[in-house]
């Protein structure tokens, strides 16, 4: 499990990312990455393509691999592990812990999990099976059996002796109780400065007690991320079943709430309850801008008025071209805005994202273009019209990919909220490019 002092979830180091990409371009030795924190390496992994991710994984020690994966979005961790060569994957699996088995059970090989359970103690097997019986959003899924229950009257010296007797058993939290129930908790580090005769009740800190069936979102209302409490007791039917770390709570909340993440350094012109007059003015501004851009697209159609009059099929099919470009662009735009919000998209890795999106656009554009061309040929019995719409969709898909990636990044540089303005500019680009190519080719080959 990730240590609390490594909990730097919003780690944002564009300089390190730029240094890494520069090193990749120069084919330099990447072992300098070992000196960086796990959270920083996780941020780089989130910000580069599959090829670069594999090169990073090859460099970092196998003992750090699973800790770094815990910092990643779940789908990113899944993609990275499933793309590893078999020999590297086996090496990484040899360093996995029971907690990691629980966290990543959904994408670990079934035969590996079965063999792993055969080599573990009954207690470990019971812990893993119990954890996997809970849904991903329940506290019980993330409970760890690293605790010691002690009476409030016990002394520090006695607890130290108890811990030393079982040095192989990790203790993250001492849960202090008396006849009335749980009094509080003491973390083992607190014993370092205490005399042996000090009683636990004098050290016990009142700590929120969690229930195994609680949603993680509910837990966020109970615990305080102030650094004073790192572990919390978890009850099941009134009995202590384990402890849950603040790191796990925070990382899990981050994963579950990922779609709602908005970084502080991305300007937000309008929040949920912006005053009516302010919100109306902000939206009206972009509606007016969109009106002018719509006229720009209409002007393109006007240029080819004679073509549209002579070939009615072009007028019928124009919405198809515009729609395909708009949808493709909005998908790319969403990915880019999400990368900006999570601080994963920077100047240094922008080219990587553009290359990826262009490849996706080429594949989808050609496939969808061919499908639509087949339908058009069947309906209008025109090879030329089918080829024209196929070319228009392919070109518009490329325009959508480029604009969807570059527009939000450019707007951010101009201190304009890409979530508000991005779709307006994107629609203009895809409409203008789509109509220009479609009607232009129509003018050349059909009239």
TrEMBL record:
Domain Magnesium transporter MgtE intracellular: 36-139
Regions annotated as coiled coil: none
Gene3D superfamilies documented for this protein: CBS-domain, SLC41 divalent cation transporters, integral membrane domain
Record keyword Glycoprotein present: no
Principal location class: membrane
InterPro entries: CBS_dom_sf, Mg_transptr_MgtE_intracell_dom, SLC41_membr_dom, SLC41_membr_dom_sf
Keyword Magnesium on entry: yes
Keywords noted in UniProt: Magnesium, Membrane, Transmembrane, Transmembrane helix, Transport
Subcellular location(s) of the protein: Membrane
Protein family membership: Belongs to the SLC41A transporter family.
Name listed for the protein in its UniProt record: Magnesium transporter
Protein species of origin: Vibrio algarum
């Amino acid at each position: 499990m990730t240590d609390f002092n490594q909990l730097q979830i919003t780690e944002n180091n564009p300089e390190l990312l730029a240094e890494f990409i520069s090193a990749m371009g120069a084919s330099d030795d990447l072992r300098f990455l070992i000196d960086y924190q796990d959270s920083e390496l996780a941020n780089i992994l989130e910000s580069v393509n599959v090829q670069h991710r594999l090169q990073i994984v090859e460099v970092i020690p196998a003992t750090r691999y699973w800790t770094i994966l815990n910092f990643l979005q779940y789908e990113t961790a899944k993609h990275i592990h499933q793309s590893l060569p078999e020999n590297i994957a086996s090496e990484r699996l040899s360093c996995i812990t029971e907690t990691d088995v629980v966290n990543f059970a959904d994408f670990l090989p079934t035969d590996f999990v079965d063999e792993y359970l055969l080599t573990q103690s009954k207690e470990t097997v019971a812990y893993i099976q119990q954890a996997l019986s809970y849904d991903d959003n329940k506290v019980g899924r993330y409970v760890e059996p690293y605790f010691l229950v002690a009476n409030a009257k016990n002394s520090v010296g006695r607890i130290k002796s108890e811990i030393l007797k079982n040095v192989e058993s990790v203790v993250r939290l001492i849960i202090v109780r008396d006849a009335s129930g749980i009094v509080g908790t003491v973390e083992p580090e607190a014993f370092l400065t205490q005399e042996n005769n000090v009683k636990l009740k004098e050290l016990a800190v009142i700590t929120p007690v969690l229930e195994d069936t609680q949603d993680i979102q509910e837990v966020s209302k109970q615990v305080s991320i102030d650094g004073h409490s790192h572990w919390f007791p978890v009850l099941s039917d009134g009995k202590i079943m384990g402890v849950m770390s603040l790191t796990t709570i925070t990382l899990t909340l981050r994963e579950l709430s990922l779609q709602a993440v908005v970084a502080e350094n991305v300007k937000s012109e309008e929040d949920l309850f912006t005053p009516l007059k302010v919100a109306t003015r902000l939206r009206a501004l972009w509606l007016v801008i969109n009106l002018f851009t719509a006229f720009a697209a209409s002007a393109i159609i006007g240029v080819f008025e004679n073509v549209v009059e002579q070939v009615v099929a072009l007028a019928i099919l124009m919405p198809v071209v515009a729609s395909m470009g708009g949808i493709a662009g909005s998908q790319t735009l969403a990915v880019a805005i999400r990368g900006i919000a999570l601080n994963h998209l920077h100047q240094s890795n922008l080219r990587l994202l553009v290359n990826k999106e262009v490849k996706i656009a080429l594949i989808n554009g050609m496939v969808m273009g061919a499908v639509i061309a087949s339908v058009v040929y069947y309906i209008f019995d025109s090879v030329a019209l089918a080829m024209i719409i196929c070319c228009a969709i392919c070109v518009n898909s490329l325009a959508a990919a480029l604009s969807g990636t570059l527009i939000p990044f450019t707007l951010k540089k101009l201190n304009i909220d890409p979530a508000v303005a991005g779709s307006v500019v994107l629609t203009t680009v895809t409409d203008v490019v789509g109509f220009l190519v479609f009607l232009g080719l129509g003018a050349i080959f059909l009239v």
